[in-house]
Amino acid sequence: MMCRWWRCFLFVIWVLALASTPLWAGNYVVRLAVTVAMYTGLALSWNFIGGFTGYPSFSTAAFFGLGSYAGALAQRAGVPMIFAWLCATLFVGLFAAALGGILLRLRGHYFAIGSIGVVEVLRLLIASWGSVTGGGDGLNVPFVTGGPDLVARIFLAAMLAIMLVVFATTVVVDRSRLGFGLRCIQQNEDAADMVGINTTTYKIAAYTLSALFCGTIGAAYASWAGYIDPNESFSLLMSIKVPVMCLLGGSGTVLGPVVGAAAFTLLEEFFWAHFLDYNRAILGAVIVVLIFFLPGGLLRMPYRGLFARTVRAWVQPKAAA
Amino acid sequence: MAYLQILVNGVVLGALYTCLAVGFSLVWGVLNIINMLHGSLIILGGYLSFFAWHSFGIHPLVALPAVAMLLFAIGYATQLLLINRVVSEPVLTTLTLTFGLDLILYNFMTVYYTATPRRVTLDMGAVDFAGIVMPVDRLVAMALALLLTGLLYLVLRGSRIGRAIVAVRMDREAAALMGIRVDRIYAVTFGIGALMAGATGAVFAMLYPITTNLTTTFLGKAFVVCVIGGLGSVQGALVGGIVLGIVESLAGQVVGPQHALTVGFALMLLLLLIKPTGLTGIRGYE
């Protein structure tokens, strides 16, 4: 295991590498860097509820989609871009706090199904509420002017800034009373309740934190893409991709989501570029391999004697019964 | 009279939903796994029966048992080789794994069968009874769906393997102590889930055009039916299916067909909050 300073150092290098892409690479790489920053932000957000608290939430796409619609509608109403993003953040945060109060009474499988249900209900509502949201035709968002290079730089800066804010929040939560309480809930909710942790408040706080920045990122994405539609914004695939990124890196850790999101996004980009027909199958295969061979994520894996252990684990699995 | 027609439509649809969800519900109840593969397995069954009809001229009713057995084999192998390794992990792991497998299956189906909607067309006409019109192929499909569901019920109630499945559902450790090989029972259960999915797909191919884009729709229906009716029992799926069928066809009439799906999901969320154990509710599987 690397010591803490090394990790900090590597993280700073990584952020600088992403931030400096416009200086040494073309527009394609810059776009990729924006995507990486975006998914890192989403994965770090999910980490609050899924990693620290251990609730299997699949509602990332609900918050992302809601944020992009809120931001897009605000911008179309003439609100300046940054304020539109802030409005979207606030709106999604309030929505998540209200929703959390209801949904977090469920546990395990029921919570998972409920959180997927929220994504579907929102998608269907937005798709059928044509007069406001444009329905299935989607919605155009006012473009940022100034040529592709400048636009890419603006959004790179914006996404990186959001990502760093989420990261800073993660670090603070990780060391605070809140983070400690959330970890207790993850290990044993009833026991946590018994020793005096206000589990309801803590869970709602975690859920709201997990939604808040998804809203900002959604709104920023809407301005970046210039066009949103219900199927793209509220996709179940995204709701599952983001937790997979966290699992890949190591959920419940501070740096895990950063590593996972970077690795996953770059892998996915590679597969899109080289195996267009089979990219989903490859994605599926990555997930299967991840579940079987990297159950603790990249960061928690002891790298010594890896091969021998893998073979042994496969030959004699822990019996199911 | 119009409402009677809606009600009959709803019941016919509900029987199909029952058949669609009962395998999913069994897998969830017994294995404690949310099987994201279910939608794709239904479509796979539909495609297999379509191509048996289209390429070899085999009547779908004849192909159905073969398709079902083939899917049973696929399901049995999947569970035994892959899912059994993580079956006792938290829901996040198992759900993600089945979703990964779903992506693989979905991708191969899209590449080999393309996304073109395909349908088995058997023109059987329609019956008119006391002012209620109903196409014959729908009635046949409903009868088949109920027959399959009934068969599953009988297997679970009467057969040795069925009793073993119920025993594992009730208490895994105790069942293992009584000499039941739990991992095999898991594989059989998942196989039965896949079998029901395949059979449902074969039935659906006679009524609706089948395309890979429908996988998530079917999966969503299975969620809703399970939550409405209650998990892991045939009766639960039956109640959930019929209720959803009637609600959807009523909603299609009252608020417009484009909102029928939303109403179904909203009903699911409502029930999750009020009565997570479903309408037939047995506690203890949360």
Structural account:
The complex is a heterodimer of chains A (321) and B (286). By secondary structure, chain A is mainly alpha-helical. Chain A has one domain (4-239). Helices cover 77% and strands 1% of the residues of chain A. Chain A has 16 helices and two strands. Chain A has helices at residues 4-19, 21-24, 27-52, 60-76, 81-103, 108-128, 130-133, 147-175, 177-187, 189-194, 199-225, 230-233, 236-249, 256-274, 279-293, 306-315, and strands at residues 139-140, 227-228. In chain A, strands 1-2 form a two-stranded antiparallel ribbon. Chain B is built from eleven helices and two strands, in the order ααααββααααααα. Chain B has helices at residues 2-31, 38-56, 60-81, 91-113, 136-158, 160-170, 172-177, 182-205, 215-229, 234-254, 260-274; strands at 126-129, 132-135. Chain B has a single domain (2-274), classed as ABC transporter involved in vitamin B12 uptake, BtuC, CATH 1.10.3470. Chain B is globular. The mean pLDDT of chain B is 86. In chain B, helix 3 (60-81) packs antiparallel against helix 8 (182-205). Chain B is an all-alpha fold and 286 residues long. At the A-B interface, helix 6, helix 13 and helix 15 of A face helix 4, helix 8, helix 9 and helix 11 of B.
